[in-house]
Design a protein that fits this description.
two-stranded antiparallel sheet; 22 helices; MetI-like fold; 72% helix; mainly alpha; single chain; 535 residues; 2 strands
Length: 535
């Protein structure tokens, strides 16, 4: 329960960042002074994590320039590279635009209107997150092979990505104070003008942030575009790596892809602006009244049903059909169980290692200020802008050149998972530590506990629910990761994602269906727990 605001006769004490409710702990959310250094027990593993994340970027740069800047520029300026750039950006733009339409419209209908069964439709709008994009692509192309190409890739990616827009937009709609909209209507503005002039500007940051996630997802996607036979940077990088002993072109293309993602993030940050729409009055905001749909009730229900059918029902039905068509001659139960066990094992190991490395970074980010803490946190988040195929390619180059015994061994695959998904775990750890009162850590130190004892006996137990949430989320996304797994998995090891890709590349849809179903079933368990138990 939130602390109430301070009574009028008793002003709230002030801190450097604003006001604090009178009943709040003086140490809540506190960070240590600028210039204070984290203890070695946190600093050393945090530096290791940062160096691991930055390694692929640094090595890609060295590898791309190995034959000189002129050769690298010839690859960048090549007509094929320019065409790949246009195809990748065109696909990203189409998917972002469609995802904005789906996400914003469904958020408005389920949060702000008297839509029958709004809660159920809201749940259905989030379920596509449990379906990997390459599973959605497999379902559509197996049912309608003519969809392969741009149209099929855009369709599959849109249906898999629009929840990234829906979720933040719905949350923003719930937080908007309805008094502003009511004031606009009292001044003569109609419903449409009120939405465009008052509501939409407040939704823009949330929708833009969701759109950025969609764009990054599309640029880094490998499975859906490969199954749909649509050439983008990720597919070209994989083909270049497999087809030639000269790996420099693949490294140069990977660098171009990284630059594209960084430019997208920078552009979104600059276009966001500094405008704010926060409430400044006292008291709790009341929920906005749900608007009656009237004659639009039937079209609204039809719209929600169509999206749910395309994004959830159709892939599930398609997988059911191919399961019914398949038999012991088309898929092997023993191989399915073996791939399932391998998937569980590598996902659990990857989540454990990633969470362990994220713990010191998250604690430093939550408890310390200064250049060191900022650099460590920003380095950890650098992996967020690096596609899986780029990380895998960099680690392949590095292992072949310097640590060949690790090539196609499990540690290298786990390192790739850590680079890719450390930001997810760091964010969860940081949020959990911020919610824990640091005064308890101060008390432990005053009683003679060492930094390691404070971390083990106080900080970690208090932040355990949030840390567990980050580990579960990391587990889910590792299960679905495809390009890094394809390039770095140990020889002879199958995972569900790899087996699904292998079968779909030869159009063996009945053989691929069991792997897709098992992947969704396993991923749905932690996904359900994440949705039910929020930190």
């Amino acid at each position: 329960m939130k602390n109430p605001g301070p009574p009028a006769s008793r002003p709230a004490p002030r801190t450097g960042s604003g006001t604090r409710p009178a009943g709040a702990s003086a140490s809540a959310g506190r960070v240590r002074a600028v210039g204070s250094r984290p203890p070695a027990v946190l600093l050393v593993p945090a530096v290791v994590a940062a160096l691991l994340v930055l390694l692929p970027l640094g090595y890609l740069g060295v590898r791309a320039l190995e034959r000189g800047a002129g050769y690298a520029w010839e690859i960048v300026a090549d007509r094929g590279t320019v065409e790949l750039l246009g195809r990748s950006l065109g696909l990203a733009a189409a998917v972002v635009a469609a995802s904005l339409v789906l996400g914003v419209s469904l958020a408005w209908l389920t949060v702000r209107t008297a839509l029958p069964g709004a809660r159920a439709w809201g749940v259905l709008a989030t379920l596509p997150l449990a379906v990997p994009s390459y599973v959605a692509a497999f379902a559509w192309v197996s049912a309608a092979p003519a969809l392969s190409g741009f149209a099929g890739a855009a369709l599959a990616l849109t249906l898999a990505c629009f929840p990234y827009v829906y979720l933040p937009t719905a949350a923003a709609l719930r937080g908007i104070d309805p008094a502003q909209e009511e004031a606009a209507r009292s001044l003569g503005a109609g419903s449409l003008r009120t939405f465009l002039r008052v509501t939409l500007p407040q939704l823009r940051p949330a929708a833009a942030g969701g759109g950025l996630l969609v764009a990054l997802y599309v640029l880094s996607d490998f499975g859906a575009v490969s199954i749909m036979r649509y050439d983008t940077f990720t597919r070209a990088i994989h083909a270049s790596y497999r087809a030639s002993f000269d790996r420099t072109p693949a490294a140069v293309l990977s660098c171009v892809l990284v630059v594209m993602t960084v430019l997208l993030v920078t552009a979104e940050n600059r276009t966001r602006g500094r405008a704010g729409h926060a409430r400044t009055g006292r008291g709790a905001s009341r929920p906005a009244p749900r608007l009656p749909l009237g004659r639009l009730r039937a079209p609204a229900l039809a719209w929600c049903a169509a999206v749910a059918a395309a994004a959830v029902a159709f892939p599930v039905a398609t997988l059911g059909y191919w399961l019914a068509v398949g038999n012991s001659a088309t898929w092997d139960l023993e191989r399915l169980l073996s791939a399932s066990w391998s998937t569980l094992a590598v996902a659990a190991a990857g989540a454990a290692i990633t969470t362990a490395l994220a713990l010191p970074v998250g604690v430093i980010a939550a408890r310390y200020r200064g250049r060191t803490a900022r650099l460590l946190e920003e380095s950890a988040y650098a992996g967020h802008a690096v596609p899986g195929i780029t990380v895998a390619l960099a680690l392949v180059f590095f292992s072949v050149r310097y640590v060949y015994p690790l090539y196609q061994q499990l540690p290298l695959l786990l390192a790739a998972y850590t680079v890719l998904f450390l930001p997810l775990a760091v964010g969860a750890v940081r949020s959990a530590v911020l919610q824990a009162p640091p005064v308890l850590e101060d008390v432990a130190r005053s009683l003679g506990r060492s930094p390691l004892q404070v971390l083990r006996e106080v900080t970690v137990p208090l932040a355990a629910p949030g840390v567990a949430t980050g580990a579960a989320l990391t587990f889910v996304v590792i299960m679905k990761e495809l390009p890094a797994t394809l390039l770095l998995r140990p020889t002879g090891m199958d995972t569900l994602a790899a087996r699904l890709w292998d079968e779909t590349t030869v159009a063996a849809y009945a053989a691929a269906a069991p792997y897709a179903v098992m992947l969704i079933l396993i991923a749905s368990v932690p996904a359900y727990l994440l949705g039910r138990h929020r930190p």
